[in-house]
Amino acid sequence: MATKTSIKSVEPNIADLANGWLRAYKLNYKLEQESLNTEIDTALNDYFSKNGGVGGNRPDCKLLLQDKTSSFYPVLIEYKGYKDKLVKLNVDGQVDNKTAKNEPNFKNINSYAVNGAVHYANALLHHTSYTDIIAIGMTGYKDEADNLQYSIGVYYVSKSNFGVGQKIDDYTDFSFLKKENFDSFIEKVKRLQLSQEEIDKLKEQREREIDASLVRLNNDIYQNEKGLGENDRVYLVAASIIATLGIPGKVAPLEKSELKSSLEEGNTDGDILVRKIKAFLNEKQLPREKKDLIVRTLQNTLTTDNINRVENGESQLKRVFTKIVDDLGIYYKIGLTTDFTGKLFNEMYGWLGFSQDKLNDVVLTPSYVAKLLVKLARVNKDSYVWDFATGSAGLLVAAMNEMLNDAKENIKSPDEYQKKAAEIKATQLLGIELLSSVYMLAILNMILMGDGSSNILNKDSLTDFNGNYGFGKTDDKFPADAFVLNPPYSAPGNGMNFVEKALSMMHHGYAAIIIQNSAGSGKAVDYNKRILKHSTLLASIKMPIDLFIGKSSVQTNIYVFRVGEAHQKDDVVKFIDFSNDGYTRSNRKKASNNLRDTDHAKERYQEVVDLVRFGKSKLCLFSEKEYYESTIDPENGADWNQTAPIDTKPTLDDFKKTVSDYLAWEVSNLLKNQDYGDNGLGK
User: Among 115-119, 192-196, 274-278, 383-387, which stretch is predicted with the lowest mean pLDDT?
Assistant: First the structure.
């Protein structure tokens, strides 16, 4: 019996050809076993391998090239030796390195040249200061004439594309890496842009990945790390992240290898983390008061005897630090667009199963709802946005994203955009949070987002805030013209006291708040009447009952205001029933995705924004029963939750249907009363 001839890999031939090009270009390349530099070597060693273990990441070839601006670009090359093993893409055209469960697809990473190179590139994004990497795959085969045929894939892997990789162009050799060609190649790389649709898809994917990683991490710590309270878990994550962020050229990220699990006084793993955090915060030039609070809060957890006790040569702190960096590092180092610490907070507290008001008061606003509030408040690049019950700063994160996106869209000079982005982060956002543990999370969130932490204040916004900047320009009023809020519902008026205070301190602008709907139907009457004396209610939006997954069902409404104009009795208010927002939610712990778009959710959220802004002409997905325009009595304060009236007057069609139903009933009765004799058909 004839045996099937196995196809022999031509990888050595491919490697010889490609490395020969590099030699001819006089480029200083390093082969698989050779060192490029310590930082890159360590990253490749620390990252999970192509088989799922730790270490063993060895690109076939690697270079470190510099462009005319002196920026360094690692180039990682992977060779294969079979015909169809260049790249494996998913249905969205992305390099397919993740399974449906958001786990590494080791089969593809191992089998395809580009997929392997992109995997190595992500190791550098995860563990080094390099944020722009060139990943190259090359494979080939011998044709019938024994000639070597080959194909090349060249991809850009960066923070800006969330590490998934973008194809740069088609190439027939590596001459784009030559010194005389490299600058124009990098210019082409920098022109690569993702469409908004692609960015949104990647953001959604990234959010699912973060959710899954946080669940996995929390399960691990909850089950295997005894003696850590819920606050300790949150603080450990926060401390580990801050210690590993680093500041290029000033503060090196803390490496796992630097934690020695020593019991020497002043040199425990906790002491090392605290020193690194202090160095980071000093370089951030945070006000001493803010810096001391952060350090004090984290130090209380990091320096306890239990967490630094050494067992089997390792402290609990080092073990947990390693888990955090390995599980989460890829996300916060590449860059976040989401309320990361809010997700963390909710995940950690989810284990406790509290039902008391205090827990429900600290609840994450889903990112798509945060984005809705920001759009309803008409936030743009020039807005000054504040939040009087900041929590983990999820709403300010959403506002900052919207402001930066608007700036990017409207400012075409890169220098001017960078200047505006810095201004947005430093002076155009202000948040106030009373609980010191939650305040610390808000600070971390904004640091991770590129640092909008400048004006996050640890104060009581109702009694201890005068409207001024908290740091820097402390004598100047914050010129707020946009207010977003998800208040603690246990507060007076369900939290309308925060709304009254904030709007009374604004001269103009818009506000969007999400709150228990009882606030608009009697529970906050006095607050509401006072608010309407200086602000106009534009819209009342009834939200889905299951909006806050994992919390007890709370009926919420969004109220939208124009600030600085008293509400008149003839002002039209838009009432929108948004009970069906297009999302289907579940609350299953092990679900890979608890939120599914099942009915044009994105389009529905945009339509709500358009309806509030422009009115009935924007009706498309919503019915007229779901959109209703009417007025309220400014002296009432309990009539903010209206629904479209039901018309009880019968129409001609109603009459015809009633007659038809009656005749059918009459005929049926007549037939029943007839004597059919033997009516057993078939007998």
Answer: 192-196
Q: Which of 217, 233, 256, 213 is nearest to 104 (CA)?
A: 213
Q: Which residues contact 173 (CB under 8 A, 6 or more apart)?
A: 21, 152
Residue 71: CA count within 13 A, CB half-sphere: 12
Q: Where are the beta strands (DSSP E) in 120-214?
A: 132-142, 148-158, 166-169
Q: Read off the tokens for 670.
A: 């007549």
* Spatial distance between the Cα atoms of 380 and 536, rounded to a whole number of angstroms: 21
Rg (CA), the chain: 30
Q: Could you tell me which residues come within 8 angstroms of residue 172 by beta carbon, excluding any fewer than 6 positions away? A: 152
User: Would you mind telling me the total number of residues written for the chain in this entry?
Assistant: 683
Reference 445, options 586, 225, 237, 156; nearest CA is 237
- 3-state DSSP call for residue 102? coil
The residue type of 300 is N
Joined tokens for residue 572: 């039209």
Give the CA distances from residue 367 to residues 200, 272, 342, 483, in Å, rounded to whole numbers and listed in that order. Answer: 12, 35, 10, 17
DSSP conformational letter for 98: B
Tokens matching residue 492: 């007076």
CB-based contact 347:549 (threshold 8 Å): no
Q: Which residue has the higher pLDDT, 149 or 552?
A: 149
Measured CA to CA, the distance from residue 448 to residue 439 in angstroms comes to 14
Residue 42: both structure tokens together: 């360590």
pLDDT digits (tens, 9 = 90+) for 448-464: 777 767 788 888 999 99
Pairing of strands 456-457, 429-432: parallel
This prediction has a pTM of: 0.71
- CA within 13 Å, CB half, 176: 19
